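task queued by scheduler; priority normal; single chain, no ligands, no partner chains; default sampling; output format set to structure tokens
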Amino acid sequence: MTERSRNAVVSRWSHAGIAAVILASLVIQLVLIFAGGADANSGDTGAAVGLGTRLYRLFSFFTIQSNLIVLAAAIGLVLRPLRDGAFWRVVRLDSLLGIVITGLVFAIVLAPQVHLTGWALAATIGFHYVSPWTTLAAWLALGPRPRLTWRAVVLAFVWPLAWLVYIFTQGAFTHWYPYPFLDVTSLGLATALRNAAFVLVLGLLLASGLKALDTKLPART
């Protein structure tokens, strides 16, 4: 077996493992929601809201959306370890950018405020710890690279910006926000926007760093 073939096998198994963790965490979370259990993002049981609202809120979390993008990217790399293309490069960068922000923000800001046990804890470990850092590690070790361009960096921010617009728009009507640091009701609009801007700046720094690493690290093809 050639080195290229070995790399392809390792990449397939690594990304299959990442996909399996995300799928298992998502299944656990959905079962908990249908059973009236805790949300792995906030710890809320949703006793005061209906099932439809709980599901809508679940898929509004940046955590869940970023994990779904990682899931799509991981499945794509299982099927074709050397996958490339203009759209793919944006998806790949969004998967890395979104999931690293998810891991950092949860560990630094949210984890001290969310106290989970049982299956909800298992789901949050998958979403917030295993998925972020195994995804980053797999990219650093396996690539494929080089893949990232400045055009991809610019386009990768379409999703986070659209997510912020959606969150603030729906919050104006529902008064629900997925994260305390974006809660206009309790913080006021100016503070919530400032916090959102801080996360965007963090995203810009991370995207620039990923782009630089994509160029400077050894090619993985």
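post-processing summary
- The first helix runs from residue 3 to 34.
- The chain has a mean pLDDT of 92.
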